[in-house]
Amino acid sequence: MSTVVSHAPAGASEAGNAPHAESNALIKPGYHPRLTNEDLAPLKKQTWGQYNIFAFWMSDVHSVGGYITAGSLFALGLSSWQVLVSLLVGIVIVQIFCNLVAKPSQVTGVPYPVVCRAPFGVLGANIPAIIRGLIAVAWYGVQTYLASAAFMVLALHMAPGLAPYAEVSKHGFAGLSALGWVAFMVMWVLQAFVFWHGMDAIRKFIDWAGPAVYVVMAILCGWLVWKAGWSKIDLNLGGIKFQGWDALPVMLSAIALVVSYFSGPMLNFGDFSRYGKSFEAVKKGNFWGLPVNFVFFSLLTVITTAATLPVFGELITDPVHTVGKIDSTTAVVLGALTFMIATIGINIVANFVSPAFDFSNVAPQHISWRTGGMIAAVGSVFLTPWNLYNSPEVIHYTLDVLGSFIGPLFGILIADYYIVRKQRIDVDALYSMSPKGEYWYSGGYNPKAIQALVPAAIVPILCVMVPTLRGAANYAWFIGMGLGFIIYAVLNRNDKT
C-alpha cells in the first residue's frame, strides 16, 4: 500500500514560483527554486491511459536496434522455441521491473530525477540524473545516425547522382560524408521539432507511430514470405548448435541481453509513468506493450530476416539494407520512411525525454525541460556518433561502463521506495532545502546511497573491463542491481521511516 504525503514542508518560507494559469504543474509556495520548475514539479492532472503506455513501448521496441537485437537472438544457435522462451522470460522480467519503478512516479506525479531525491538527497539526485543523461546523449547520437542511414537509402534511390557525396573520401568532414551530414541533420531537426512541442506532442506522435510501423513491417514481411515461399524459410537463423542442458547458459545470456537492452528506458520509466491516470492503467499498458508486443515484433522480425536468404541470396539482419535491396520505388520510400519514423520514436522516448528532465534537475531555474533536451541533442553531434558506431570496441566499452551504473541506480531506487520507506513519499519534502526536510542530508547528499552505489558499480565495471571476468559481463545489470539493492537496504536496516 503506497502512501503519498503532501503538506507544506519544513522551511516553508523558502522562495517559490507561482504556476502559469495553463500549466499542469503544481508548485507550492514552499518549494525551493533550486529544486523546482514547471517541468519538475508534481502534475495537477495525469491523463495517460493504458493505450498511451502501450504506444510508448511500441515506439521503444520498433527500431532498427530492436530489429537487429531480436534477430541476433535467433542466430545464437538455439532452436526457435528456445529463443521464444528466452525472449518471453526476459521481457516479463522487464515488465515486472518497470511496474516496480513506475509506481513511485505515478503516485506522486514527479519524474525520475525528482524521485531519486528520496534515496540520494535533494542535491545528490543529480548523480543518477547525470549518469542516465550521459547514457542517453550517447545513444541519442547513435540512433540518429542509424535513422539517417534510412534517409540516405531513400536519397540515393531517388537521386543516384548523389552517390559521390555519400563517399567520405570524396566529400567528407569529421568522418562523415556530405550526404551523411545532410541526412543526420535532417533527422536531428525532425526529432527536435517533435520534442520542442512538448510531451503532449510526443504522446500524439508515439500513439500513431508504433501502429504505423507495425502495418509496414507486416507488409514487408508478407511480401518477402510470398516471394520466398514458406517452405524455404528457416527460422533457426544460425542453425541449432545447442541441445538439452547445453542450451541453458545460452538462453540465460539471451534473457540477460533482453533485460540489458531495455535497462535505460526501464530506469527512467517514471518520466512517463508519472502521466498515467492510474497505476492499473500503467500496468495494463506495460503488459500489452512489453510481453505481448515484443514477442509479436520479434516473430515478425525473424520471419522477415529469414526470408531475406531465399529472396536475396544472403541473410540480412539490417532492415534498412533489406529495404534498399527491393527493386521498387514505392517499397523503398515506404520502408525508409517507416524506419526513420520508428527510430525517431525510440530516440525521443528513450534518449530525448530522459536527459531533458535529468539536465533540468541540475539547475531548474536555468535549464528548462526543453533546454535540457537540446543540450543532449547538441552534445550528441559533438560526440560524432558515426565514429563511435564505426568503432564497436569504443562504443562497447563506453556504454558498458556507463551501463554498469544503471543496475545499481535501479536497485537503490527500488530498495529505498519498497524496503526502506515502505512506499511512503513526502512529495513536498522532495522540493525542500530545509535542514529539517526528510530528504535533506549533510550537503544535500545521502552518504548511504553513495556508499551503496560505488561498490555496486565497480563490480560490473570490472566484469566489463577485466578479460578473465568477461563471462559475467552479460549479467552486469543484474549484478549491479542486486548489489545496489542489498547494500542500500543493509545500510538502512536500522532506519525507521
What is the structure about, briefly put?
By secondary structure, the protein is mainly alpha-helical. It has helices spanning 50-61, 64-73, 80-108, 112-115, 117-120, 126-158, 178-196, 199-228, 248-261, 263-267, 270-273, 279-312, 319-325, 329-362, 369-382, 385-389, 392-403, 406-420, 447-465, 476-491, and strands at 3-5, 172-173, 176-177, 424-426.
Q: How would you describe the overall organization of this protein?
A:
With 497 residues, the protein is mainly alpha-helical. The protein has one domain: Hydantoin permease (Orthogonal Bundle), CATH 1.10.4160.10. It is 64% helix and 2% strand. The protein has 20 helices and 4 strands. The strands form 2 sheets. A two-stranded parallel ribbon has the order 1-4. Strand 2 and strand 3 form a beta hairpin. Helix 2 packs across helix 12 and helix 8 packs parallel to helix 12.
Strand portion: under 5%
N- to C-terminal distance: 15 Å
Helix content: 55-70%
Biggest sheet record: 2 strands, parallel
User: What's the CATH class, please?
Assistant: Mainly Alpha
* Unreliable segments of 5+ consecutive residues: 7-21
**What best-fitting shape do the alpha-carbon axes yield?**
globular
Mean pLDDT: 85
Q: Based on DSSP secondary structure assignment, what is the total number of beta strands?
A: 4
| Class per helix and strand makeup | mainly alpha
Number of helices: 20
Architecture (CATH level 2) name: Orthogonal Bundle
Total domain units: 1
CATH fold category name = Hydantoin permease
Radius of gyration: 23 Å
Strand order of the largest sheet: 1-4
